[in-house]
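Here is a protein:
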Amino acid sequence: MRDAAESTLAAAAGVRAARAALGDRDDAWVVGGAVRDAFCGDRVADVDLAVAGDVERAARAIAGAEDGHAFELSAEFDTWRVAAREGGWTLDVAGLRGTGIEADLALRDFTVNAIAVPLGGGPPIDPTGGLADLEARRLRAVSARSFEDDPLRLLRAARLAAGLGLALDEGTVALARAAAGRAGEPAGERQLAELAALVAGPDPTRGIELLADLDALPGVLPELDALRGVGQSANHHLDAYGHTIEVLRRLLVVEADLQHFAGDVSGEVAAILAQPLADGLTRGGALRFAALLHDIGKPATRVETDEGWVSFKGHDRVGAEMVRKLFRRLRSSRALAGKVAAMTRDHLVLGFMVRDRPLPPRRVFGYLERCGDEVVETTLLTVADRLSAQGGGVPEWAIEGHLELAREMLGVAVPWELEGPPKPLLRGDEIGAEAGIEPGPALGEAVRELAAAQWCGEVSTREQAIAHMRDFTA
């Protein structure tokens, strides 16, 4: 096991760079996730290094040896980052805490992250029993103060346990629950980084359920926790929270079988979802966030009639505003907040169109125009949302009809995504001149009308466009 781990570490670009620059030093150690992953047999990407002495000097030496870029990551924690100029790997260099490497490891979060290997090679240093915990598939806090020292570790516990398939030991669960009231204290961007890694990880549903089990969900995502106990209509067999978890679970099913759910454009859809977005997430990661948050407007909009019928009119619009507010709290990019808010706003639209199949071209265009840059992701969200109703009051034929429409819509949404709408046959000023429309809302409406007519094949030449605009404003 040790030999395999050493080979894995030696193959990591960051370790090679550090050894090239600092290999003769006996006061530098590879620590944290890189060591853990190496002993798990996983590929090592990013590397953490603990060094005694001048951290900046060590980081700049590594950057110079590999033509990398070194910069200070945290003055508070005496940490520098070295990044490959062409991307591909990063290495964080941190000052040794305490009187030596064992004292440093005793200050870390979990035992599986408190293992060190000398940079030049040698036996692992494992004072807290992390290797035994890895063997037992167990996540255990290093000390009784782990969560008190940094409540962000509450999120990290859920992320690591879900992502690595580890079970939290009873003592760690008790410690986490005792500190759960502080879950919302860390800076928003730190919370977002952990949440993004959890949501984009291999088992996000378990990660969210662990946050709830540790009593940390109310402090981190109170909007999601507020869905607990919110009863829905007879078409739903779960409360709003259970429904949300099921939508996320069904989205993972959709991701795993795009050929079935996206049909002939499944390859293009996979490539779209893999596109980097922001905050360490791809567009697919943002879609997972939307699955978690798309119904957070329901508690504020719930109305129950005397007959017991429940409605949530406007929860899509209210939810979209709540999403933006939530991501402001987490200090996310506008790109991520905008994507998730747009999907939340439009997640009901396709469902209302199923009964009108086959759709006329104008209805299809209207859907594409409304969903815009999020049309592929929004359509997939509606699929997961509809699948979550299986086992409830929605008949199977209605669910299948939605899936068929979604496949049809993805067939036109992908070209819309990749190529955009047709190039306008007339500019806005030309439309105004030909149809006698002054600049303002009426001109904007005319521009949209021509775009619809072009996409639907109603006009294909400049002359036809001019005639169409004159008829439109007649």
Observations:
- The chain has 26 helices and twelve strands.
- The mean pLDDT is 92.
- The longest strand covers residues 68-74.
